[in-house]
Amino acid sequence: MIKILKYYWRYLFIFISVVFIFIGTYFMFKDNTYNLEVENKLASNKEEKKNTSSKTIYVDVKGAVKNPGVYELSNTSRVIDAINLAGGLSDLADTINLNLSKKLSDEMIIIVYTKTELSTYYKKNNNRNAVCASLECVCIDDYNDACISKESSNKSNSKTDNTTKSTNSKVSINTASKEELMSLSGIGESKAEKIITYRNDNGKFNSIEDLKKVSGIGDSIFEKIKDKIIL
Q1: Would you say 229 and 209 are in contact if contact means Cβ atoms under 8 Å apart?
Q2: What's the half-sphere exposure (Cβ side, CA atoms, 13 Å) at 9?
Q3: pLDDT band at 80 (very low <50, low <70, confident <90, very high)
Q4: Which of 97, 172, 175, 201 is the most exposed place for a label (fewest CB within 10 A)?
Q5: Can you tell me whether residue 103 is helix, strand or coil?
Q6: Whose CA is closest to 56, among 46, 70, 69, 68?
Q7: Whether the model pTM is above 0.70
């Protein structure tokens, strides 16, 4: 047996060496394949996140800007970015009731009003001041997506105005004061007074839908506030 081993030891050594080389090559190839799969997966996830975060949208910029029109921007942009892309504000512009930091969304409409337009609107609706930190900040057009919402105005004013109704609570259209009614989206001082006059003249509302019987309150305003009102 010993003689046989002495005779064939060279062949045995070669065989063992081949086995070790084969095993080493196998595990090396397996590790490289795994690393390649991980790298491909990470690259794919990174590209997917990049595509998601840099989606292209289109917004319509109107009113008191130098170059009104439809502009292409990233969905991470803000209202101020769209205005700047439209050449910036004109000398007549007034952005007191606009949220310039609001994130853009596809098909968004941004209307920049002039000082004259706002002044005329507030005088017509018996609002002397256009101060957006108060409930007197309203939007001339319901379809202007850049306006400061009633909810935003109420939230910023709740610390200093004890008469302001919490946006998370519902407002009674039968008992609410003028200030409480004005906390609803689209209801300014004029409409709040009309609601109070209507219920004084006709009695309490029998359903929240009866609110549409008040002059100036149509379907668009009602749809915005129907989930925030009670009898």
Answers
A1: no
A2: 6
A3: very high
A4: 201
A5: strand
A6: 70
A7: no
Kindly tell me the number of DSSP H helices and DSSP E strands found in the chain: 7, 5
d(C-alpha 112, C-alpha 144), whole Å: 9
Distance of CA 92 to the CA centre of its chain: 28
> What's the rounded Cα separation, in Å, for the pair 156 and 148?
11
**Helix or strand (DSSP H, E) at 71:** strand 69-74
- Closest to 125 (Cα-Cα) out of 114, 115, 144, 139: 139
Note the pLDDT tens digit of each residue in 86-99: 999 999 998 888 88
Using one digit for the tens of pLDDT, what is the confidence trace for 175-214?
888 888 888 888 888 888 888 888 888 888 888 888 888 8
Give 157 or 69, the one with higher predicted confidence.
69
Q: What's the rounded Cα separation, in Å, for the pair 68 and 185?
A: 27
Strand bridging mode 56-63 / 69-74: antiparallel
Indicate if the pLDDT at residue 124 is higher than 80.
Answer: no
* Single-letter code of the amino acid located at 67: N
